[in-house]
Amino acid sequence: MYGMGGYGFGWFYDPTFILVIIGMVISMAASAYVKSTFNKFDKVKSRNNITGTKAAQFILESQGIHDVGVQAIAGDLTDNYNSGNKTLSLSQATAQSTSVAAIGVAAHECGHAVQDAKGYFPLRLRHAIVPIANIGTSISIPLILIGVLLRGSFLVNLGLIAFSLAFIFQLVTLPVEFDASKRAIRILADGGLLTEEEVPQARRVLFAAALTYVAAAVATLLQLLRLVILFGNNRRN
């Protein structure tokens, strides 16, 4: 999983800062929701009594994926799949837990491994965008500030374009995450890892997790909108 949110723009204190505040509130609400949903279903132990690690190993094997390793890592909900070294990392809360929530999260990360194995285009596109988006977001604010100081609209526009790469990254991330969850639920149902009653519970956990990516996209869009508004004011002045 990748994160590109959380940009602060304290330099510009004006009414448009409300857009940043709204984005922060949406992101915090989504984060709180996913944590509460995970905690709720983390208390529901699966009838098959299988751990997140065992579930991940079973899913990878069932999908014919033999070159991906599964490891436990520190942290809370830090689960991720790294296509570079073919490693699926499960947080401690997921790796050893037999809960419906843990199995759902493990299956979601396996969904990314399946995407990788099948050459899922949005996943490849996201990987290609990452370095460009990182560079763009790191130079966007300096370019905008320099452009404002020098009254250079070209630099300001270039900075806005650079920052917009973060939003593009968020947009590309959405289908990747939703598709991984869709694959996960289908695999869990078909493979019998969860019962018919447990599958909808896992779906709720993954839906809550997906909302964090939607929130990140909205927050980034609001930040971009704020910069565009500020640039327009500067140009008129």
Structure description:
InterPro entries: Zn_peptidase_2. This is Neutral zinc metallopeptidase. It comes from Candidatus Enterococcus testudinis. Keywords: Membrane, Transmembrane, Transmembrane helix. A 3-stranded mixed sheet has the order 1-3-2. Helix content is 70%, strand content 5%. The protein has 237 residues and is mainly alpha-helical. The protein has 7 helices and 3 strands, in the order H-H-E-E-E-H-H-H-H-H. The chain has one domain.
Strand arrangement, major sheet: 1-3-2
Number of strand segments: 3
| SS strand fraction | 5-15%
State the major sheet: 3 strands, mixed
Top keywords for this entry?
3-stranded mixed beta sheet, 3 strands, transmembrane, Zn_peptidase_2, mainly alpha, about 240 residues, membrane, Neutral zinc metallopeptidase
SSE layout:
Blueprint: H1 17-42, H2 52-62, E1 69-73, E2 80-82, E3 87-91, H3 92-95, H4 100-118, H5 121-149, H6 153-191, H7 198-236
Helix pairs in contact: 1-7, 2-4, 4-6, 4-7, 5-6, 6-7
